[in-house]
Amino acid sequence: MVRLFISSTVDIPQELKASLRKFRFARRNAGHAAMVVKINKQKLTMEEVEQFDDISIEDLAEELPENSPRYVLLSYELNHSDGRKSFPLVLVNWAPTSSEMGLLTLHASAFIDFQNTADVSKVIEVREGAEGFTKEIIDQQLLHA
Q1: Cβ atoms 95, 66 nearer than 8 A
Q2: Is the CB of residue 91 less than 8 Å from the CB of residue 73?
Q3: What is the pLDDT at residue 126?
Q4: H helices, E strands: number in the chain
Q5: β-pairing verdict for 85-86 and 78-79
Q6: pTM of the entire structure?
Q7: What is the pLDDT of residues 41-67, one digit of tens each?
Q8: Roughly how many angstroms between the first and final C-alpha of the chain, as a whole number?
Q9: Interior CA angle at 11 toward 9 and 14, to 5°?
């Protein structure tokens, strides 16, 4: 019998997994909701920073740090050209270029593990801070993907 051990650089605690699951399956019928997660560099674990309900993308961008990476699980209200409304789950990889290189490296190394745990396929990369994170940019990436 061969055992394969997959080591991850950053631990995702059980309570965060439960919170991610609860966020994923919450029923939404209006507005955007977000869950922000950071890496605790000293403990090498992921921590939930905050959840926002019915927040504008611009306000969410203002809440995110200018010099520190975050994973943002976003329930996004998407209005289609035929009048339909959907709420896709999107993973925003908030990784400003002004962040400390060691933290960016740690963030990048744990990204796939977080994406798989959150069970999200749509990813939006944001490197330019608030200027690169607008409703127009998200709409463009989701509607023309």
Answers
A1: no
A2: yes
A3: 95
A4: 4, 7
A5: antiparallel
A6: 0.90
A7: 999 999 999 999 999 999 999 999 999
A8: 43
A9: 160
